[in-house]
Amino acid sequence: MKPEDLHLTNFFGADDIIPHCGEMSREEVIRRLTPDEESYRQVAAREAMGSTVIRDGLAVPHARLADIGEPKVRIATSERGIVWPGEKSAVHIVFLLLIPQNQPALYLQILRALGTALKDDQVLRTVAAMTNAGDIYRFFESGKAYLPRYITAADIMSREFLYLHDTDTLQVCVDTIIKNGVSEIAVLDRDNDLRGIVKAGGLLRLCLPEYLLWMDDLSPIANFEPFAEVLANERKTWLREIMVDDFPVVKPDAPAIQVAGEMTRYRSPCCYVREGNKLVGLIRISDFLNKIFRE
Amino acid sequence: MIKFNSKLLLLAAIVLAVSFGGRFAGLAVNTTQQITLAVFAGVISTTLFFWERRVAAAFIGVAILISCHAMTLHTILKATELDIIFFLVGMMIIVGVLKDLGFLTWVIQTIINRRKMNGVSFSLILCVLSAVLASVVDEVSSIVVVLALVFQVCDTLKLRPHPFVLMAVMATNIGSSATMLGNPVGIFIGNKAGFTFAQFLVGATPVAFAALMVTLVLTVVWFRKDIRAMTLAMARHRKMGLGPALKIPYKTGLFILLATVCIIAFHHQIEHLLALGGAENHNAFLIMTPLIMAGILMIWRPHRARHYVEKDVEWWTLLFFMLLFAIAGSLNAAGVNGEPSITRNLADTLTAHVKGGAKAMIPFVIVISSLGSAFVDNIVFVAAFTPVIQNLCDQSSAYGILWWALLFGACFGGNITVVGSTANIVASGLLEKHGHEPVKFFDWIKIGAVVGLVTGVVAWVMLVAFPHATGESQEPSAPVPVVEQHQPAELEIPSISPYEQK
Fold first, then answer.
1. Could you give the ipTM of this predicted complex?
2. Do B107 and B144 touch, CB atoms closer than 8 A?
């Protein structure tokens, strides 16, 4: 079976659905949905790391398990809602995922299919109101909740990111890097098109011309003499003069593995997601590793 | 893809034309020699059209030569000129150590520390530095160093670096002809012709110096607007300087460089002291000196030794040279039934058609090698033409003057186009790496052709007008018996013209 032929309902049946589970705590729901103590322990441990509520009313507690061959999905619904610690509103559908550890992308693929099935709050509430497991199953079965062939850059990118403009100065850039603890920043032009990036390492290269780095022993410049001129000019140096235009870029629909390839090729901690000329997202290597290995 | 196919078709056409044209012109007298010509033309054309695939083409070329009995495995290995390869490996390691020790950084820093400069003085310093560095290290190391200076100055002054890159490259190519150390072409020709380092110096340096002076004037006039802009920018920027003012230690590096050059300069005398005579040991200490120095330096800095060998030695280039020399050697191989070699046939054809003897052939060799080097790497052309001159020299020692014509044609002709020499290609790559557009082909050829033409004329005039500087050129006489190329070394520097083969 090809991945694009996989439907969400390939992973569960009506028997795996607990409708109208009433007033329960998060722990009670997870315990009822997990098949054994070990998987409960792992799901609870993941939950302790941070809430798995992915949107109002929908929680996806999950774990990656080494000793299961096939993914397992179990669903619980509650029309009145389950109180989920740390969340303002109650959860109406709990979608528990147990994923084999050797299928790192499957979690994100199932999330995409789930997003297609429960496309808005109205649908979510309708499903939560269903009293029969068979009805809920048929609802999912009738929808086009197919797993995508692969996860894309858009699935793992962050839509919140730092940027500066090419008319900003080196001083602003250094301040931003120090304040936010980032290693690189996107540079946009006045039309907000992505034009380049400025790397913290690149700023060091600005201070240390290549011919100084030929030397094995840098003790002759131990007092940072080469930095003096750059420092003196930091308010007169514009980012368009020092930004680089060769950096990892992908389109939103690029496979996530392409993101990994670009970051590896450029030895860069970030990959930029560009649609047309606009920067639409940023994938940091830590986010990438979290999505693929941990979440 | 279409471009690739059209290039491939052109390559095939050249291979066929050379192969059948060679047969028709009487250079190749049997099918094996025709195949040899085709292989050589194929490898040369690959360097022209598919630069990145040149090593692959050379591998296949060698395999074809062995398969069709043009050469044996033994003769191929003998023709790889391992002595020259060892020399280049040693020099590359020494340059790596000089970089590591900060000597090359000091060279740049010394100029950056100068506060009173203008566009003209910077251009003059740049050209002289390029030429001198190229003559004592090598053209590629030299261009990397001087372009680091150009980028530092131009980035600081916010000027286009292109004119200064061109000036530096042209001076580098000219300076690289001044000594045997400057260019693989120099050590190759010197070794083939049997010159000592001192003979080479006496023969090549005056011509290179004259060509450099002419080029200096030409380029300063040609780029006068850019030089004026630099003068104005330097005046505005005087308080700030051209970069950080630093004191870089240089004495150790300078000592290593001077020691290497001095030992190489006296290799002939050392060989005599060590009784390293005979054809088998010709120029042995010239070749061994960089290896000895490199060995000592790596013992001194064991933690960096692996870095020097793995990163500072251009193995890709050297491998190509070895294979290329082997393929060029096949042109000089006699036929299995005793037929004369292709190069012998070419030499006979030249002597039959070019009247006036060796002097009349000087402009011919300069023009051919200049044009050839303008479009393929100059070492490729020199490797091909060397056996022809060897054959001419076998007929008369007066033809020894053509070694110099070949040297200057190949080095000065490398200035004509952007692909004319390794230094040009490296410079173009460095421009791109620093975020600048590479120099356009036709922008390069405009100044390159002028410099190539004028310096070629300078070389011709000097070779014709001053052969008597240390001796009288002889006119070609009746063919003389074939002389062993690698003659025993003499202690004294002979008083015959450096423009004649010993």
1. 0.72
2. no
Touching check for A225 and chain B: CB below 8 Å?
yes
Per-residue confidence (pLDDT) for residue B244, from 0 to 100 = 77
Count: domains in chain A: 2
Q: Which of B12, B45, B70 is the last residue of a domain?
A: B70
Does B80 share its domain with B38? Answer: no
Question: Could you tell me if A7 and A147 are in contact, meaning their C-beta atoms sit under 8 angstroms apart?
Answer: yes
- Tell me the chain B residues in contact with residue A209 when contact means C-beta distances shorter than 8 Å: 148, 152, 243-244
Count how many domains chain B has: 2
Range of the domain at A19: 3-149
Would the pTM count as exceeding 0.95?
Answer: no
How close, in Å, is residue B307 to chain A by CA atoms? 11
Confidence of residue B455 (pLDDT cuts 50, 70, 90): very high
List pLDDT tens digits, range A100-140: 988 888 888 888 888 888 888 888 889 989 988 999 999 99
* Chain B interface mutation, best of A195, A198, A214, highest count of B Cβ atoms under 10 Å: A214
**Contacts B109 to A, Cβ<8 Å:** 211
Check whether residue A207 and residue A260 sit in a common domain: yes
pLDDT in tens, B393-432: 888 888 889 999 999 999 999 999 887 888 898 898 888 8
Contact call for B100 and A214, based on CB within 8 A:
yes
Q: Based on the domain organization, do B18 and B111 belong to the same domain?
A: no
- Considering the domain architecture, whether residues B248 and B391 belong to the same structural domain is answered as yes
Q: In chain A, positions 170-209, which contact chain B (CB-CB < 8 Å)?
A: 209
Facing A226 at nearest CB: one of B101, B151, B244: B244
Nearest CA of chain B to the CA of A263: how many Å? Answer: 20
Tell me whether B248 touches chain A (CB under 8 Å): yes
* Full residue range of the structural domain in which residue B37 is found: 1-70
HSE, side-chain direction, 13 A CA sphere, residue B9 = 6
The verdict on B39 and B115 lying in the same domain is no
Instruction: Answer yes or no: is pLDDT of A3 > 70.
Output: no
**In contact, B194 and B502? CB cutoff 8 Å:** yes
Identify the domain boundary among B70, B97, B127: B70
Q: Is the pLDDT of residue B482 over 60?
A: no
Mean pLDDT of the residues in chain B: 85
Arithmetic mean of pLDDT, B240-249: 79
* Residues of chain B positioned with their CB less than 8 A from the CB of A226: 243-244, 246
What is the pLDDT confidence band of residue B502, given thresholds at 50, 70 and 90?
very low
Residue B29 has pLDDT above 70, yes or no: yes
* Cβ atoms < 10 Å from Cβ of B256: 19
Would residue A155 count as lying in a domain? no
Dihedral (CA of B488, B497, B188, B21) sign: negative
8 Å CB contact of B148 and A210: yes
Whether residue A176 sits in one domain with residue A73? no
If asked whether residues A75 and A169 sit together in one domain, one would say no
Based on the domain organization, do B227 and B306 belong to the same domain?
A: yes
Using the Cβ of A219 and the Cβ atoms of chain B, whether some distance falls under 8 Å is answered with: no
What are the tokens at B444?
């390069």
